[in-house]
What we know:
The complex is a heterodimer of chains A (166) and B (167).
Chain A: E1 30-32, E2 37-38, H1 41-50, H2 61-64, H3 74-90, E3 93-104, E4 113-125, E5 131-141, E6 147-158, H4 160-163
Antiparallel strand pairs in A: 1-4, 2-4, 3-6, 4-5, 5-6
Chain B: E1 31-33, E2 38-39, H1 42-51, H2 62-67, H3 77-92, E3 99-107, E4 116-128, E5 135-145, E6 151-162
Amino acid sequence: MIAQEPTSRGPLSDLLGPGTFFEDYEIGQRIRHARGSTVDEVENQFLSKLVVNTAAAHFDEAAMEPMGGRLVFGLVTGSIVIGLATQDTAECALRELSLTALRFTAPVHHGDTLYAFSEVLDVGPAGQGDAGIVKFQHWGTNQNATVVFECQRSVLIKRREFWEQR
Amino acid sequence: MTGSGPANFDPADFELRSRGNKFEDFQVGQVFRHHWGRTITEADALNFATITCAYNPMYLNAEFSLAHGNKALVVSPMLVLCTVVGLSVEDLSEAGGPFLGVEDCVFTQHVYPGDTLTATSTVLSARQSSSRPSTGIVTWRTEAQNQRDEPVLSYTRTNLVAKRARA
């Protein structure tokens, strides 16, 4: 638990937890995110179809049964890993700027459970004074601690001094 | 002329209408204007943000987003990326093979509920795989626009792509 000191937090900041303003990130900081998520019908079958991914490898169980069952769309895996990291890495984000070095390092199937890990690679100024840019390395693993996804992500994050009282 | 009708159904009589492209179908510089387009609704945005645990109130709370100067609830950028890749799958990767990676993915501006995404891809490279003779490696640059033809997203994507089976 992180103790919440009484502050003059404004109504917007009252909706946020502690520890996610720009000033809270330090290069080298490593975070193991609290929650995992099992990937099943709602996550893969529904989201793959929602985003008009037409590859039936993601939604035809009969065809995929010899290959271990439906393959989870790599960007569903990536979206869940980044999602699981979001409360700790973008709760105060004004904008998610970019991603790079996305790698899908092992297949994910229905029933697998994803976990997320992040490291702060860099912190720096932005083109606006009320926020800074934090660059993260993210990893996603399955329930056997096999890395299934990696990426780097840059996020524009509010500075406490400008935003905490709003 | 009439067909043989419901009394004579045998799946073997039907010709498969297959989808997707193989390695031989890609030439450097070739441009694909992807099918359909996709309007993103508020339901899409909230379903996606909640199912992926994207816990930034900008993606969950319209009033919070408005208070930050945005026009509405912000669509999670991962939904934008997933949708643009989804629109491109039939042309680029449906018949091909595994997703290898994405580089240089830039979210140019926010997408809001009601915006309509369309996408175009250009073949940057297509080369033989040295380790797997039955496949190649193809890289595309994809750009997505909203209904005002403003850029919202661009990225470079690489997949293994199967070759046509030898006759």
